[in-house]
Each structure stands twice: as structure tokens, then as C-alpha cells.
Amino acid sequence: MNLKRLFVRLLLGRRLPIVSGTLKVAGLQAPVSIDRDPYGIPMIQAQNEADAFFALGFCHGQDRAGQLEGLLRIGRGRLAEIAGPRAIGVDQLSRRIGFYHSAVQQWPILSKEMQQTLQAYVAGVNAAYRQGWRKKPHEFVFLGIEPTEWTPYDVLCVLKIQCWFMACNWDSEIARFLILQNDGPEALKSLDPLAFDSTGLTDPHSLPSPMSSFQRLVQDVQHLTEFFPKMGGSNNWVIGPKRSSTGRPILANDPHLGANLPAPWYLVAIHTPDWSVAGASFVGSPTVPSGHNGHSAWGVTAGLCDNTDLFLEDLKSIGGKWHYRQGENYLPCEVRKESIAVKKQSPVEVEILATPRGPIISPSLTVKTEALSLRAIWLDPLPVEGWLTAFKARDWQTFRHSFRQWPGFPMNLVYADVTGKTGWQLVGALPIRKRGHGLIPLTGWDERNGWHSERLAFEKMPFLEAPPQGFLATANNRPCYETEEAFLGCDWLDGYRHRVIVEALEKRNPIHLEDCTQIQQSVRCLPWEEIREVVLSLSHPATEILKNWDGQISANSIAATIYQIFMGRIARRIAEVKAPRSVEIVLGRGVTELNGHTFFSFRRYAHLVNLIQQQPQGWFPSGWSSELLSALDYAFQKAQNKAWGEIRPLVLSHLLMGKSPLGSIYNRGPFAYGGDEHTPNHASALPLNVLGPVQSLPNLRTVIDVGNWSACRFQLAGGQSGNPYSPHYDDLLHLWREGSGVAIPFTKEETTAATRSQLKLVPAIAEG
User: 420-431 in b/e burial notation, b at 16+ Cβ within 10 A?
Assistant: First the structure.
């Protein structure tokens, strides 16, 4: 029994939201009905679009107020107000990047329709704060604060925060730059995964690129050394009707985000006279990125295209004011001063500088570098549609073209509809560079560097209709061969998850819904299959365990533990011999207070596998066999005969309260959990600390039987509520752990049968 949890409940009560009866609220145009099913999933009936978004915001505000508060404070740079000095670095970084500042600038660019959508959503959130509970949620009592009123700018901030975390390249740019500085170009040539690109292609029929990823890197290094000559994740797939056991398309999706509770996702069904939608909404925004509308279905993974660059800046103080170099001249920087409130301390003043490239972020980096500016599509004042309109699409062309205006993070979208149409579209605005490929920071003052004013045309973005093999999958892998005309980036993740999914789908004909669920649970370890012969050729007690291993990263597997520690050890030794001054950077040490790891670390295993297989000369004085034996011995001792789920269990941590003395009330776990970074059942195990906490996982899984909506299943790692005293805080967690899920009631009959409570919202102006 958790005595602390019991004590707090007795002291403060359960503080549940109001889910039955009638509430008069300002901001509505007409009455709205919010029915909730046995799992607390709301089924919204609205008479118009604005009221539908208002109701979604109201539900988010009722059930996820603490989560919303955390997102708002990250976006505004106001965490230190409640967390104290330990959050100053996060706030400084947020202010320097300018999440909120750029959102304010972007707002006037949005269409009137999009503005109305965001206004309706935040009006619903704020109405929930005023009238959705009888008492404010526990975390606000603990923190001694009131919920902060939302603005439309905060919704835009949520998008920009996701862009920051999903931008796969800027932190890899820093890693490459530091390796160059500290250990030279030969170290980078030896260690960068671009040299060992084994990612599978989403569209294998595209034409090969005339230039390899590593050649692109070499070009960028050459551009940089003109001035510094001494310087050395998510899965989804779609199945066509001819390969499906149902004769209808099947769509599967499991996005991977942080191991937090509550999850970023919130299940919902919304009905208006003009459209309906059911699926997983994203908390903090009026969007449903994974779901269906009764005609079409869709799912998403991170596309990892490169829409963010860093530039070296030459700054100089002239007459007490900061100037940036442009050619041979120095021009005044844009300067903005902001004050960060700190709990129980004096405010911290921040001076924020910007050049035409973007804001200077280097003072907030945890590594020492020159002045670096951040150039990002998502910081530009650009119009937004995408998920704000795509959910209404009833055909493939309308769906994909909804993302013509999407300056958010790049995404792989898979689509299917009741006509049998299936497709894939890569979306996200991308820059056209003057020169270079955005693989390392280039000098901002050189006019030959930078971005052209126009962006890559939407028509240049890859897409595929009715894939000839009858299915298509994406897993943050390289999407296709790119050309100079349409350069997409280079920092794709290793292709192991993609290969596991594709090979599993190829073996099944027809493919059943249950097959998709099984694939989402797969912990097959492809890297082990590739090095198995080499490792088992060594004589060591560990190989006696490994030779009987089925190659599954199962929670109960001791061999999986040995393998993981072995790979982490080899990764470290390779970094030590080639880049002794940059070991932690090579292994993925994060470079800001918000980023625990760099994307550079997510791409180490294909690189390791290639080296273990090839064993190139000159790497280790005692030879590869001796080094591999030493790593096996280290892993054997370190494993302590413990299973993978025992030595590295899963803990789901609350965003605001997880690390506080009250964390045991909010957190769930530890649980035995299988998988790693390279298995479809994703559970990141990174070489910097393979036994460290699970950083990310598929906190949403979806399998959609297109046209038979009652057969769709949604899995959520937690529950609908962010209140630890609600029955819906973790009532879906056991289903997620088992790999089963729930249906979201969609039809009128299903909604009526599932309803356990009903809340009526009526316009306050109707009073009297």
C-alpha cells in the first residue's frame, strides 16, 4: 500500500472532474453533449465546428490540466516559477529559442479559419479551468499555483516544442562539429553513421542519389575548413485490400514519445453535422494525428527530414551593443531582454540575441562552442493547416494536400479509406540551401552559406499511392533516394525496425488485424542476427548463454542483457580509440537542459554492426578478437545473471511531479519491459547508458480496420486522466502492457451503449 498516496487522498480528496449534469459556460454557440465511456473516453456531440473544438479543449482541461500547465510553462519559459533554480536552464533555452516569441509573430499569418479553431480550443481549456472541477487538481495544490490561462499562442508553442524535439539534425550538427574540433576529420570519418548508411527505403523503387550521405558531409566539412583549417523515433504501416484478410485496408500506428504519465495522447470521438473523427488527439492542440473519420484513416511517424540548421556567428560588442558579422561588416543584432521569475529567488535577466539566421542559442548549450544561431522553418511566421484540416478529408488527394501548409516537424503519413485507396506522403516544409547540406554548422557571415528565400515545393516531397507490394511501412528510416533538387536530409535512424516490420508483413498473406498487433509487440533483434556468427566464434562463458538465445529482447531474457551491455561497451571502446576527447558526445550526451540525448546516439548500432563484421585494421592494438572478448567479459560480469526487464525496468514518470517527493503518487512502475531502440516494441536503450531509464516508448498503439470501425483498437500507456486518484489514470495501462486495446465508440448505437456519464454544456448567454 502506498501510504503517501493514501494520506494525500485523505487530506485533499479525489478532486475528480464534473462529468455529469449541466454546466452553463461562456464561449459556446450551441449546446454540446460530452458522454464518457467506461474508460473515460469522451464522445462529443456538437452542432458546429467551433463548439466541437471548444468541447475538446474542455475535455483536455478537465482531464489533463497538469500536463497542459507543464507544456505551457516549457513553451513560455516559465518552469523556474514553480520548480526553482533547477529549471532556470530550461527557461533560458526556451526564451532564447523563442517558442512563444515566434508564436506571437506567427499568429497574424494564420488564416481566419485556423485562428478561430485555436481560439475555440483554448476557450474550452480555460472554461474547464473555471467550471470543469469543483476543486483544482492536486498538483496545483502541491505547487501553490492556479492553472495558467491558455492563449492561442500556447497551442502554436506546443507545435514548436515538438519540432524542437523531433528535429533530428541540429544536435547531430553539434556532435559532428565537436568531434571535428576535438579529434579531427579522421575521427569523424571513422565514427559518423553516415559512412555506414544501411537504412531501408520506404520507397525502394525511387532512383538512387548521385551523391552519398558521406560525400555530402565531406563537402560541408570542406566549406567549414575554409575558415577553420585546423579543426580536425515511431512505426506505421498500411495494408491494401488485396493483402488484407478482411478485403479492406488495415492501418497500424505506434508513435514513440517520452516515457511519461499521462501520455501525450488523449482518446476521443467527436461528431458534428458536417464531420466526425475518432482517435488519439494530441494534448495541447485541437488535432487527431492518429485515427479515422468514418471514411478515411491515417497514422504518423516522425519524418526526420532536415528543417533546422545551425550557423557559426561572429559577434562583437561595439559601443556597448552586440553586432554580428555579415561579410566584412558588423551590423546590430536584434536584442530582446526578458526576465525569468524563479521560485524563492530573485529573477534572472536574459539578453536574447538574434541575427538574420535566427536566435543565438549557444549560451544555453551544455557544451562549449562558438556562438551558434538556430535557423528553423518552424520559427518562421508561416501559415499552418495540416492536422487542423486533414481530419475532414474523405479522399487521398484532399488529405495529402492539407499538408501543403505545414511548417511543423516532418512526418511520414500513411492513409487508407473505404474505397480501398492507400498511400504514403512525406510532409513538412524544407529549406533550399545555398550550399552545403546542413550536416555541420557553417559560417553565417559568408554570403555563400544560408538558405534561399523559397522553400522546397510540396510537389517535390515523396509520396506513393497503392504500393505495388500491397503494403508500405515507415519507421523513421530513410524515405527514399533523394536528389540535389530535393535534398531531404541524411540523419535517418537505423533501419532495423523498418526491416523487422517489412519482413514480418512479407511473410503473411493475407495479413490479419492480429498480425499487426503482434508486429507492434515484436522484440526481434536484427543487429544480433547480423553479428551472431562473429560473437559466437569467440570462446567465453557468455557465448554459452548467447548461442541458445532466440534473438528476442524479451523482458525475461538474460542473454538480452548480456547483448545490450556488450554493444554499449563496444560502442564506448570504439569512441575511445577514435575520438578520445569526444567520447561522451559520440555516445550521445545531450547538449541542452531539454535534451537528454542527441540523435547522433540513436544511430550507433548499424555503425557498430558494420565494424564488428568487417573488423578493419588499425583500430585496436591487441586486435578485434581481444577487444570483443574483453567486452563480452565486461557484459557477463555486469549482467549479474539478471533478465533485461529486471535490470532495466520501465518507470512511467509524471511530467511535473515525477521527480518530486510526491513522485510515488504519480509515477507507475517499475515494470519488466522488453525491447530496445531497434525493435518495433520500442524501448530506447542507448550506448551512453544502456541500463539507464527507458527514455521513449510507443505510448500509443493503433490498429484500424478501415470500414469496420468497431474492430479498431487503441492502446494507451496509462489512461485518459492526469489525476492519480481517478479510476482512469492508469486503467488502460494493463491492456497496453498485454498488447490489447479498446475500441472508441463511434456510431450512435455504440455511443449510447457505452455511455456511463453525460455532461451537457450550454451557452451561458442562454440564461434567462
Answer: bbbbbbbbbbbb
pLDDT at 213 over 90: no
Q: 644: closest CA among 689, 585, 583, 691?
A: 691
Nearest-angstrom CA–CA distance, 265 and 267: 7
Please give the model's pTM, rounded to 2 decimal places: 0.94
Quickly name the fold that domain 311-379 has: Penicillin G acylase, beta-roll domain (2.30.120)
The distance in angstroms from the start CA to the end CA of the chain is 51
CA-to-CA separations, 258 to 144, 417, 552, 662, 665, in angstroms, rounded: 26, 30, 23, 20, 19
267 close to 280: Cβ distance less than 8 angstroms: yes
Q: Where do the domains of the chain lie? A: 169-232+301-307+385-518, 311-379
The grid cell for 110 is 494564420
Would you list the DSSP string of 103-135? HHHHGGGS-HHHHHHHHHHHHHHHHHHHHSBSS
| pLDDT recorded at residue 207 | 57
Q: What stretch of H or E contains 682?
A: none
500 pLDDT more than 80? yes
Share above pLDDT 70 across residues of the chain, in percent, rounded to a whole number: 92
Model pLDDT for residues 49-85, shown as the tens digit of each residue: 999 999 999 999 999 999 999 999 999 999 999 989 9
Provide the CATH number for the domain formed by 169-232+301-307+385-518 in this structure. 3.60.20.10
